[in-house]
């Protein structure tokens, strides 16, 4: 039968069946948690803090891997690499500075720039 799952922010019903994408997400979530636990144990740091960092790192890597194949609209964006001579540029999605140490970014025709992984996620 269905079981109800709840936490501080979410309530949903679980039918007991996972589709292909849901199964892959469940596997990824499990592997991410296992990696975070290993890192937290090795460093003596708080698991929740390490988990947040690990989830972000995994998301960034997935976005980089998928960046070229997700949406044809993204193919219309110009690839740019930030260099020291560039003025301070803020990502239009996350509002954080795009680093000048070779961060790969994307630029639109209007000249707005984004971290490559942020525009994919957005």
From TrEMBL:
It is an enzyme of class 2 (transferase). GO terms for molecular function: ubiquitin protein ligase activity. Transmembrane segments: none annotated. The keyword Transferase applies. Its EC number is 2.3.2.27. SUPFAM superfamilies: RING/U-box. InterPro entries: Znf_RING/FYVE/PHD. It comes from the Eukaryota. Gene3D superfamilies: Zinc/RING finger domain, C3HC4 (zinc finger) (3.30.40.10). Keywords: Acyltransferase, Transferase. This is Putative RING-H2 finger protein ATL34-like. It comes from Davidia involucrata (Dove tree).
């Amino acid at each position: 039968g269905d079981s109800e799952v709840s936490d501080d922010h979410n309530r949903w019903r679980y039918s007991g069946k996972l589709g292909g994408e849901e199964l892959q997400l469940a596997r990824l979530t499990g592997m991410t948690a296992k990696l975070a636990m290993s890192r937290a144990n090795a460093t003596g740091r708080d698991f929740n803090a390490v988990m947040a960092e690990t989830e972000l790192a995994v998301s960034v890597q997935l976005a980089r891997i998928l960046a070229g194949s997700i949406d044809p609209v993204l193919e219309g964006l110009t690839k740019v690499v930030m260099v020291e001579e560039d003025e301070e540029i803020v990502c239009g999605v996350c509002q954080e500075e795009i680093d000048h140490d070779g961060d790969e970014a994307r630029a639109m025709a209007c000249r707005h720039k984004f971290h490559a992984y942020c525009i994919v996620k957005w």
